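Running this now, will post back.
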Amino acid sequence: MLGSFSSTHDDHDDPDRTTSSSSDLLYLHYHQSSPSLPQPVVDNCSPSAFVSPPPPPPTTTTAMTGTATATTTTAAAIQPTSMQMRQLLVTTAELLERSNFSAAHRLLTLLTSSSSPFGDSTDRLLHQFSHALSLRLHRLSSAVTTMSYLPHYSNNNNIISAGVFSFGPGVPSCSLPGTRVSPRTDTDSLQSCYLSLNQVTPFIRFSHLTANQAILDAIEGENSVHILDLDIMHGVQWPPLMQVIAERKLADGGSDDNSSARVLPRTIQITGCGRDLGVLRRTGDRLSRFAQSLGLTFEFHPLLVTCETDPILLREISSVPSQALAVNCPMCLHRQLRDDSRDLCVFLRRIKSLRPKVVTVAEREGNNNSPSFLRRFAEAIEHYTAIFESLEATLPPSSRERLEVEEVWFGREIRDIVAEEGALRKERHERFECWESFLRSSGFSNVPLSPFALSQAKLLLRLHYPSEGYQLQFRKNAAFLGWQARPLFSVSSWR
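Update: finished.
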């Protein structure tokens, strides 16, 4: 139902859906005719890369003096609930906030030994947050107390193992099980994991389809369009849009007459931003071949970004009067934030000065940018609990793709939110109301999403993610995708 969370991917008739619309083709055709993309490579995420949790303590029997009664205690009898385990995470965070490192260490040892990347959603959530808290403990204690952390190293036949902590006088040095201080999250593993994330969750596809429909609505009647994608990754967003433009061209008989208001551009230029020039060039080659197969005039320009907030980035973009400009911001504005919002405001005003026809913004729905660590931590637990539950409902327990996504992608985000501070913290998610305020103060106005956008999102969930837990909501001229009653992602359109 529009305006409130409800199940929207059932088989009931949908008054907003047109069965033969080009909007439906926007989703369907790419999965039939798109060029093959590189397959994800699981890196450091195979089961052998993790240490399985220890088995439960053995059953113990204690004889009572003077009686024949024996008391048997098993691990199952004292197994804490998921709510209690999450409360232990919060308690550990509070201890860290009070610099009580020895007590925090004892709780982390318990949490780490009780969690696993292979268990249910609660086990896996505990695994990621315990690791993140361990990293925060390492960094805080190294700044406040005497601490020794050395990698595997041999000197005079003495082997010193990683993960050895000294918390000061009176507290013995010890090792946290499973502590990994420097997880490998390089460009290759993230690029690979992005493809898995796109396949096993609806979040990225929902963002792409909804943003594409907003762009199509904005560029009708234009001869040429220039798309500035601020984080193009593998470019999987654009073949469906090209497909619709090519089909519209065939429907119009290939005529160059733009008398029809429904005519779409014949010429497409994409400037793709990214941090790996090799990936950008391969992405451009794939998109160029796909456009050529459709008979479209196409240009691709790679733009290498060297840091999260690159002031030179937009200086290389110029506005051409004969070309409609569309700016796509896929999950990237939150990385422009710092402890203040000056960099983001400058960035948005520069985009506004380019006079784009449309700016599409896809962002996470989470208040993970609070300066208060405890508030940020509590919000992150709620946000990622919903994400991990959605993954459990979508994928089987043995799924390697789920393991990769949780460890490399979402695990990296959790570590950033929990363990980092200041300029090192990049994952600064905010709710839609915050982005709305920033955009309006920078001169943008909200453009309502069309009914086709809702139809696309419903079709996506109905065909590929039939779990009743996924919920759609349209409010404030934006689209929201969530799990159960919690919004997790939003997409909006601006100009």
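Residues 121-144 form the longest helix (24 residues). More later if anyone needs it.
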